């Protein structure tokens, strides 16, 4: 895999990669901690919930690594897909809160985190597009 020099990656790419790596590792390595935020009254956590957090944890780690290792059109594609991924996460988190499936505090926090990720994906996509336009052909 070709890598993009550090100076070529906009700051939002690094921020989004860091968030993805942190959250993905947490989902993969400590799903019970995250599950307790969604379902604090269930002990032990549902095996299905543990599976889901690990499943999305590895997805999120791989997405974060991709932002740090991919370049060119592949990186731009990763960022465009990130807008859809994080936008979907944002809608899901908000919907869970609106329907009372999670506590208001959890709904607000997860919606905000996902919205920030969406904004970072949008910002990184725009910054990368602008930096590509500035380069001589």
Rg over alpha carbons: 17 Å
User: What is the first-to-last residue Cα distance?
Assistant: 23 Å
Major beta sheet, specifics?
none
Form type: elongated
Total count of strands:
0
**Count, helices:** 5
Point out poorly predicted stretches. none
Strand content: under 5%
Structural class: mainly alpha
SSE pattern: HHHHH
What is the average of the pLDDT values? 89
Report helical residue fraction: over 70%
Question: What is the compact description of this entry?
Answer:
The model has no long low-confidence stretch (mean pLDDT 89). The chain contains five helices and no strands. The chain is 79% helix and 0% strand.
Secondary structure blueprint with pairings:
Elements: H1 11-29, H2 31-38, H3 47-69, H4 72-98, H5 104-134
Helix pairs in contact: 1-2, 1-3, 1-5, 2-3, 3-4, 4-5
